[in-house]
Amino acid sequence: MISVVIPTLNAGRTLPATFLSIFDAAVEGIVSEVIVSDGGSTDATRQIAEEAGARFMEVERGRGQQLRAGAEAARKPWLLFLHADTALDAGWTNEALAFMKRGSGAAAFRFRLADEGFNPRLLERLVALRCALFRLPYGDQGLLISRELYDEVGGFAPMPLMEDVEIIRKLGRGRLAMLKTNAVTSAERFREQGYFRRSARNLWCLSLYLRGVPPEKLVERYG
């Protein structure tokens, strides 16, 4: 029913939690295949993926390219794109199945950070506001999309950055639903770089991209 596509690059520390969050769905037959689209990992990513029963692909580095290659290899009528540091909350399949009964469409999950305190909760509220006003979820919120609609909009562009924003723009707000289940993402970069600094950098890169700056020029700024 669902092909899960996970782009990876040295994701050995976080990938097990991502797999664990879709394990029950795989046992129940809701997730029929898991594809790890790897951009050249040198850690234990491949071993972890293969031991979990996932299909491991080595592709050209770049998240857009990796997502696109994984989707091309997928065989099921629904695609679920997950980052390798994101895990879906328990019970996500109930909401996903209810959405999939519509027959076609796209949906993203609710953003949540794996951290405690004021800063992560504030950021989560700001992301929720952005999604409510602009229907602009990022890739760390996952993307559940029918193969039919994915092909219709041309899929992920082979971009090194902003591939998530680009496909959401192609979908348009009328074809994107926001689900209530949390997609819990690692807060490591926010803790290392500071919540304000990291958030400001993300917003600045988004604004530059929307003003026409090529993604290739944004990669170094994004970090």
Automatic annotation (TrEMBL):
A Pfam family assignment: Glycos_transf_2
Subcellular location: Cell membrane
InterPro entries per record: Glyco_trans_2-like, Nucleotide-diphossugar_trans, Trfase_2_rSAM/seldom_assoc
Domain of life from the UniProt record: Bacteria
Source species of the chain: Rhodomicrobium vannielii (strain ATCC 17100 / DSM 162 / LMG 4299 / NCIMB 10020 / ATH 3.1.1)
CDD domains, sorted: GT_2_like_a
MF terms (GO), sorted A to Z: glycosyltransferase activity
This protein's name: Glycosyl transferase family 2
Cell membrane keyword on record: yes
Lineage per the UniProt record: Bacteria, Pseudomonadati, Pseudomonadota, Alphaproteobacteria, Hyphomicrobiales
GO cellular component: plasma membrane
Domain Glycosyltransferase 2-like as annotated: residue spans: 3-157
Keywords: Cell membrane, Glycosyltransferase, Membrane, Transferase
